[in-house]
């Protein structure tokens, strides 16, 4: 059987029957060609979208949750309902120490303040932060540096500003490092500028100052605005959120069933929705692609059935000359697989061209919608294997049709 | 060579069945040239098809070259056809997208002979029928007589024990018919056993023996003085 595939005659026969009606052979291949083209084009685009999502979220610890205090909705241990809950640094520390699977706990503070520089001013959100923030929410520094431990220890009056703030408070191309800006009436030295990200998760981030400085100038004591918890990759962030809230309830004397005392935003869960959407889209792509392929392969089977019908007499002659039914079937199946593969091959090539086109149209620059739209070799192989399997299966139909007629009846056919 | 005893065959037509062959006894020796005659519906083609293993008898015995032909699978039938038999058809039945040489080589292909050897053998047989120069022409570039000669070369290619011809001259004019018959007579002179189905008296008399069928039975089976076709050519 294998030897048969390497014989010149086999392919001569395939070639003869394909070139006998060139237009029909080409039209036959359109279905499979289109199916593969769709599969490659869509899968490549889906991959491009996934890549661009990954790039957007790349600087962000996605396995994270934000937790902040609100007001209680149930009386507990002598406290009235409606008690304001404020988290503190010690809460953050205890959460970090007691919740399983926590990677980082980042306490944060935020306030709106008037920021003045010479004659320019505006009200922006001022964040009091630890250097750790840079670990979970990577800041792309364009100039200077982010807050460091030394700033925290010495409660330095330094500020890291975003590109947007720079544009609003500084002249174009003006040097900003070492310049002063007035926050809440106090002078802060600008030590760095970061790029505004494509996606801002959580509160807007305009200006970051050291946490300890923030505590001092806004009189916060140990209170914090909210904390950001990130889980280790192998832990479920929803569980971490629940565990953390349980501890926080205990620490703050809150009724165990009080769901309103803490607000939270589970980024991990939201992110899962997005990735779930991507997975769904890939599934849809495979589904559409393979369904189209099957339709295309059926078209091939259909045409081969017609061809076999037209060649009934020829097949009869061949059988009178000593062709066994197996030899006839084998030839037709090889023809089916060959047409399918040939069409698939063209489909893969044109699909590749389309991806190149998509990449040059939508895949350039930082804001690209589709990043590196492409399919892996594995996908191409899977597609080819699917083609071979489908081609063989569909080829069996005309093959059995061809040998179901007795040679004597086939010969009588006019 | 060929031994047939009490052969019966009927075809279903709707609810009833048509009894086509009603007990045929026929034996053919090596080197014979037999014409099977009869009007249409007499069963002569059915008989030839059974002899050619294209069809199977309902009842009776058929022994070809010492091999009982019975309960054949399609595969076995194909192998026997390839080994024992050469077919010549009324409508030539050449494969129209293959040239003369490839047509002749086709039975050899199914014997599993290598391409090179196949081409050589096919060319040898084409030369024998005088069409070496036309080896690379397609059938539609050949005349009727030439087509039938290609078909004869094809039937001979596998070196069969028995040549079966179903109205070999049916689609040809008289002059070409005699040329073809002259050719077939030469093959018989060389020792080939040949069975010809025909309804033309002159063609039948160019054989050595005439078997007349009527309504599914053999009416007459006689040896005749062979008329040489060459005298008309």
UniProtKB/TrEMBL annotation, chain B:
Pfam families: ABC_tran. InterPro entries: AAA+_ATPase (IPR003593), ABC_transporter-like_ATP-bd (IPR003439), ABC_transporter-like_CS (IPR017871), MacB-like_ATP-bd (IPR017911), P-loop_NTPase (IPR027417). GO terms for cellular component: membrane protein complex. Residues 2-233 form the ABC transporter domain. Keywords: ATP-binding, Nucleotide-binding, Translocase, Transport. GO terms for molecular function: ATP binding; ATP hydrolysis activity; transmembrane transporter activity. Belongs to the ABC transporter superfamily. Macrolide exporter (TC 3.A.1.122) family. This is ABC transporter ATP-binding protein.
